[in-house]
Amino acid sequence: MLLAALVEGLEYGTLQGDLHVDISDIAFDSREVSKGGLFVAITGFTVDGHRYIEKAVELGAAAVLVEKDIHVDADVTVLKLQDTRQALAEVAARFYGRPSEKLNLIGITGTNGKTSTTYFIKSILEQNDRKVGVIGTIGAMVGNEPLRTKSTTPTTPESLHLQRMFADMAEAGVQDCVMEVSSHALSLHRAAATRFKIGVFTNLTPDHLELHKTMEEYFEAKAMLFDLTSDFNIINVDNDFGRQLIDKVKGYDTKLVTYGIEEDADIRATDIRYEADRTTYLAHTPAGSIEITVNLPGSIYVYNSLAAVACAYCSGINLEHAAAGIRAVERIKGRLEVVYHDDERKIIVDFAHTEDSLEKALSTLRPFTQGRLLLVFGVYAAPGAVGSPKREAMGKIAAEHADFSIVTSDNPKDQDPDAIIAEVSAAVAAAGGAYRGIVDRREAIQFAIDMSEKDDVILIAGKGHETTQVIGKTEIPFNEAEIVTEIMAARKSNSSSKKV
Ligand SMILES: CC(=O)N[C@H]1[C@@H](OP(=O)(O)OP(=O)(O)OC[C@H]2O[C@@H](n3ccc(=O)[nH]c3=O)[C@H](O)[C@@H]2O)O[C@H](CO)[C@@H](O)[C@@H]1O[C@H](C)C(=O)N[C@@H](C)C(=O)N[C@H](CCC(=O)O)C(=O)O
Ligand SMILES: Nc1ncnc2c1ncn2[C@@H]1O[C@H](COP(=O)(O)OP(=O)(O)OP(=O)(O)O)[C@@H](O)[C@H]1O
């Protein structure tokens, strides 16, 4: 495709060369440039992509997009734009033929609940024999097969990869794509130049303040999704920021659909019956009412499944199929997942790693816990003062909602795990909670199991579906379901050998 067509209508200055260059590929990483490619230089948080232009040219780049005044000593075209991350999204969408417009694309944003809402929507669409694509924390998939497109980011990929994924999905005959849209992605323009038919807002509670600095800034980042939607904006009316978003988008052409339990909403849940392993409720929609069964406990899964009912309603799917789709989700990996259960104790793994989700996970389990509620958790937050409020808040929540906390490591990465644990433990103690600090997460799990007594419930929070732990720069295998199984098997074989 000609460079002229890729940048037509964008604001740019030509620093050197001309626009009649045929572009064979696009890369934002110099190591991935191929002959005749376009290299987009990004000013990163860690390094400056402009430093790698020479490398990109060596590998055959025919043109470069920059956001700084740069002269390249070679026969290449160099264009300067205001923001190369945004430009990357636009040129990638053009290069792949605006593939998002070929899909019924549903974008889900919010602090918590994106992944589980995605599962429910996918299941509903599949009940309708649709070919569904998914992009999110659980990876990029078509049906249950991983998408072959390479992606380097965990939740919402960089715009170039995203556009390539949409193109691959469209080519594979995918009709609907359900995608988690993180606030990082929105503020770094990864989803720019993407057209969503439906946008969903689950909730907003404190998180990622290392990037967004204030809740208002975080809200504004999430709200960007609703400037990219064409047909429906589906918003949780029970959440304070949800109501703020409703006020913001009321005048938009995109139709507003609200959902909730407490407030008057277009899609509303009533008659909720909570059980230890499932929840039933009546969902009311403008198209009628239906009984919904969710195979997960607690109000959070009423909200997440209700958001999926709202998507079904907006996609013209009948309510019976919506109910069947939600019922078909038997469990979600690492979401209040019972990984061990016997007459003595229940052990649950959950991905709760924010203040709100930890509080919700513990209060969901409390009514169904006859003995003590034991919590194993760590905190991953920004280093130093920026992360202190999260460490303190999570310590306080643990003290208020658990009977005993084993404070351990999450993914300490480059931070000192002892220092994190000391700060979190001090917060548990200050709020009157009983605790023990154990740096090694496996030992912490073992300790919780050893101290548990009849009818206790152990919640291992923070890592959910993840199968590794990042300590320093090293990623070690860490599968909590397997670890629990191993510990319980070792206990059984010890106790049977003692009996002999
Ligand atoms: C904080 C953040 O979002 N970082 C993203 C950012 O990285 P960065 O700015 O540090 O990149 P950098 O290393 O400084 O490099 C700058 C540029 O130089 C280029 N480069 C670098 C080296 C080289 O030899 N040649 C070269 O061209 C890089 O490819 C890049 O284009 O830009 C990179 C390129 O787009 C992203 O891959 C990277 O996401 C990393 C992988 C990441 O972990 N992001 C997380 C925080 C994230 O986005 N998470 C959210 C989910 C959050 C949640 O809800 O839990 C997500 O959507 O995944
Ligand atoms: N609606 C909700 N409100 C509050 N907490 C929730 C909600 N839904 C799920 N959670 C909690 O948040 C955890 C993560 O849920 P989920 O993976 O669905 O969210 P997410 O938005 O995809 O998270 P992330 O962006 O971190 O991957 C769950 O394990 C649960 O503890």
TrEMBL record:
Residues the record lists as binding UDP-N-acetyl-alpha-D-muramoyl-L-alanyl-D-glutamate: 30, 155-156, 182, 190
Keyword Electron transport among record annotations: no
Residues bearing PTM N6-carboxylysine: 222
PTM summary: Carboxylation is probably crucial for Mg(2+) binding and, consequently, for the gamma-phosphate positioning of ATP.
InterPro entries, alphabetized: Mur-like_cat_sf, Mur_ligase_C, Mur_ligase_C_dom_sf, Mur_ligase_cen, Mur_ligase_N, MurE/MurF_N, UDP-N-AcMur-Glu-dNH2Pim_ligase
Keywords: ATP-binding, Cell cycle, Cell division, Cell shape, Cell wall biogenesis/degradation, Cytoplasm, Ligase, Magnesium, Nucleotide-binding, Peptidoglycan synthesis
Positions of the Mur ligase C-terminal domain: 334-464
Subcellular location field: Cytoplasm
Binding-site residues, ATP: 110-116
A biological process from GO: regulation of cell shape
Chief location: cytoplasm
EC class (word): ligase
EC numbers: 6.3.2.-
Pathway involvement of the protein, from the record: Cell wall biogenesis; peptidoglycan biosynthesis
Domain Mur ligase central: 108-312
GO function terms (MF aspect): acid-amino acid ligase activity; ATP binding; magnesium ion binding
Gene Ontology cellular component list: cytoplasm
Family named by the database record: Belongs to the MurCDEF family. MurE subfamily.
Function as written in the Swiss-Prot or TrEMBL entry: Catalyzes the addition of an amino acid to the nucleotide precursor UDP-N-acetylmuramoyl-L-alanyl-D-glutamate (UMAG) in the biosynthesis of bacterial cell-wall peptidoglycan.
HAMAP family noted in UniProt: MurE
Protein name, as recorded: UDP-N-acetylmuramyl-tripeptide synthetase
Originating organism: Paenibacillus soyae
